[in-house]
Amino acid sequence: MAIALLNFNQHGSTVQSIFNFYIENSTALYEYEPRSEKVVEDWFAFRTEKNWPILGYFEKDREKPLGFATFGFFRPQAAYKTTVEHSVYVHPDHQQKGIASLLLQELMAKCKEMKFHSMVGVIDSKNFPSILLHQKFSFTLSGEIKQAAYKFETWLDVVFYQKIL
Question: Which residue segments constitute the domains of the chain, with CATH numbers given?
Fold first, then answer.
């Protein structure tokens, strides 16, 4: 088992396929259209420019990450500069193996190291595995927005889980 930084040239297609699985099959991402290679490349470039890590989980015999985690701006205004919104995604064939926990734990350590004060997870209210993951690491429910999005012919509520680092 290893957690390492990801880059677009080696890992872009795997990250793209994981994103697109969740876009097409779940409410983990409130998007309708799959992400193109260019969108994923720009996503990597933006995080690289900001020096924000994209952490990947690897098993020793695999070349492709089985999951990844990163963060970005919570809000773009300067006063929010010490709060990040984070994301953790695990390949659908490798869920329930503890990968998300390992990635979130490492991401929290990176955020502390980078002197961020607060992490926020923005989660679909019915994404119980993600909610349980955040509760496991002492994130607290900080709010809920009812009918914040519409996908798969239904209204979706979003919850905010926060951890003060």
Answer: 2-116 (3.40.630.30)
**Residue 151, C-beta contacts closer than 8 angstroms, at least 6 positions apart:** 27, 30, 32
For the whole prediction, is pTM greater than 0.90? yes
Show the tokens assigned to 100: 């998300």
- Quick: pLDDT tens for 103-162: 999 999 999 999 999 999 999 999 999 999 999 999 999 999 999 999 999 999 999 999
What string of DSSP letters covers the chain?
-EEEE--HHHHHHHHHHHHHHHHHH-SSS--SSPPPHHHHHHHHHHHHHHT---EEEE-TT-SS-SEEEEEEESSSSGGGTTEEEEEEEE-GGGTTSSHHHHHHHHHHHHHHHTT--EEEEEEETT-HHHHHHHHHTT-EEEEEEEEEEEETTEEEEEEEEEEE-
